[in-house]
Amino acid sequence: MSRAQLRPDGRGHFGPYGGRFVPETLMAPLDELARAYDRWSRKRAFRKRLRALLTDYAGRPTPLYFAERLTGELGGARIYLKREDLLHTGAHKLNNAIGQALLAQTMGKRRVIAETGAGQHGVATATAAALLGLECVIYMGTEDCERQRLNVYRMQLLGAEVRPVDAGSRTLKDAINESLRDWVTNVRHTHYILGSVLGPDPYPRMVRDFHRVIGEEAKRQLRKQARTASPHVAIACVGGGSNAIGLFTAFVDDPRVRLIGVEAGGSGDALGQHAARFAGGKLGVLHGTRTLVLQDDDGQIATTHSVSAGLDYPAVGPEHALLRDHKRIEYVKASDDEAIAAFHQLARTEGILPALESAHALAHAAKLAPRLPKKHVVVVNLSGRGDKDVESVLRWDRAHGEAAADDEVASVAVHPASRQWRARSEGGDAR
Ligand SMILES: *Cc1c(COP(=O)(O)O)cnc(C)c1O
Fold this sequence. Notes:
46% of the residues lie in helices and 16% in strands. It contains 19 helices and 14 strands. The strands form 4 sheets. A 6-stranded mixed β-sheet has the order 3-4-14-9-10-13, sandwiched between helices. Strands 7-6-5-8 form a 4-stranded parallel β-sheet, sandwiched between helices. Helix 4 crosses helix 15 (336-350), helix 5 packs across helix 10 and helix 15 packs across helix 16. The protein is globular. Pyridoxal-5'-phosphate (PLP) binds next to helix 12 and helix 16. Residues 91, 93, 120, 196, 237-244, 310-311, 355, 357-358, 383-384 line the site of pyridoxal-5'-phosphate (PLP).
């Protein structure tokens, strides 16, 4: 397998995947974007400005952290966490949002738009727009607005306008349709910031490139901290696939590194219960790209399920589909239960609450590491922090009898011992 086979051609085809399956009206905007991206991404000044924003504003490089207690509990390979959860706004998504917002500004656009499902990409985009002084409109299904009210307000605080989309299933895919419609109408002064390695060319390769920094940093950090630039295994969760490709790209040419993408196994194997495109998807076209799509026998897009909102998109990035065909990346799944267990394990052993998306990658690491020699190195991409998921985990644990009900939580708060402590500290005893 040569590197050339894995690169997209001039029209963004990753082998049989990718491309541009869009109405004629979108061809010119996509051409303009591809030309601008190819031109600016090579310029020193653009790269320097992007690097400065990622460093001074977003907080790069993010640490690579040896999870010693987790490693000890699993009893096998050494686990290193790439801490994208420590990036500003709490997830890897800002790498891409800042990259595209800067490109938009460089292209002379004064307005950016984006779709969002759970709200994470909307928040990242609104943040980047505030940073660069761009007008910002976020499309979000009404169903998602209802479920993610705090993120709607967060975007508004950041100066964005959130436009609810009341069409179709009133979720992410309808928000994408609406964003594309807006873009066609307002393309002269508007750029569409797509949130993962999806959509028509040039998005899949452009979004990948803005996230490559994850793997490049990890490689340098491993060389220093683990005396190797080739981990034995790299693991990441795969929704659209941007955090995974961001980590993996640095290692794709190194056959010694085993790359594993983890999809949402959800609550079962039947269509509708999971978001495992590599287990149940068929070749199809969704949102302008040809790739594996979860669909029923009539080609209707299937509903998906995952305990983590960021992994439930019915299609996967076209580059992932190609890398799977070439057996360069293995794809596995982790179920809702396994992700929740991994969430608890990381919290307990390392004092880190992972995003439930990232917990899928941790769940697979927990299965694999005990079977590997102790000197092996496993890198897990901790794509985001889990503060946003605490309520979901609490609800889950209660439904499974593993967390106290509200009245019990309340009674803990007024436990006699804590009352005593409070009385003492309020008593002005300074010791
Ligand atoms: C959005 C999101 C994902 C899934 O998106 P990818 O494009 O597959 O990376 C994973 N983790 C977190 C924390 C997210 O916010």
